[in-house]
Protein 1
Amino acid sequence: MHVELTKSEMEIMDVLWCDGGALSRADFLARSEQKSWKDSSVHILLNGLLSKGMICEAGFVRHNKTYGRTFLPTMTREEYFAATIFSHRYKPDMLGLMKALLDRPEVTAETLQALEAQIKAKKETR
């Protein structure tokens, strides 16, 4: 599944991915310090993300005298970006993409060791 997210929707998703728990409208407003959207737009953004399947309702929370919905992401940040890469018309070659990622300066020895363990586990399940 691939979904195109707007800049504002991506900011909402980033708050969810960083927090790791279910968040309400008030939580988004409190945690979104550098946002490109207006406070009054949060309902529109959340409903758009719901319709795109990027978030789901997780429950309700009480704020003063009213109740509000809480939301969780339906996929991790990494799952979203992996889906994004392979949903385009011009998909990258898998080996070329992996090589390009491994050549990035952000890849540490610890990352390589963890990746080797992931590859070994994947081979064992095939």
Protein 2
Amino acid sequence: MALSAGDTCPEFRLPDDKGKIVSRDNLKGTPFVLYFYPKDDTSGCTVEAVDFSRLKGEFDSLGVPVFGVSPDTVKKHGKFKDKHDLTVRLLSDEEKLLLDACGVWVEKSMYGRRYMGVERTTALVGPDGTIIRLWQKVKVPGHAEEVLEAARQFASAT
């Protein structure tokens, strides 16, 4: 089941690129961004991660941490971050628990072949765990800026 704005962000406990656990409970009282992406070190995913990293200071100044989530391993996330000097934290969901709970682990099709994968999606989550804004089937160019603008609007309204 896909999430919608107004839904509660599912519970999660996932390791980041250094193996440190991040959970929804840790983030209680803090707005945050979860961006779901298919795979480390692919072209679109790299551009998205670089864009969010470039804007990390602005998100930080709003008190809104950004987390990328994919089914890649902690080790692969670490290599991806080092290779591209990424500053956002990447969460590993190898068991696809959060991906499934958020409805972003879906059947996809390319060149007539069907397979399971991540539908690029971003959620801006409020301090109470409610999804404030949801972007589905994200197109990467300009997306990180759009999310930052939504975070600014949220911060100025609270």
Protein 3
Amino acid sequence: MFSKGAALDTLIGKSCEIKGDIVSKGTVRIDGKIEGTVKTTETIIIGETASVKGDIEGKHIIIGGKVTGDVFATHKLELLATGELHGDIRTPRLFIAEGVIFEGTCEMEKILQDMQQVKK
């Protein structure tokens, strides 16, 4: 699900429930329930059994479970066939599989322009 060389730094298992924010500098995988924001400089994987109520921010975000909140992916957002997202999206690259439930808005062109301005 993520690049071959990437290491998994944080794992929230199926039986785990967290009320609070998660901040990491590495890859985070969630298979349990979170009520709070999830933020990392790397990849966030929301597994099929996961439920997140809160905003998510990361470089590469993969959603296979249920998310209620806004999502900001600085590189790419993938919504897998089992994914459900109720919130707004900001990302330069977006993949949506057939069968996804998505309710919200998506902003892509402006964020790409903003990112290009920063690089200049």
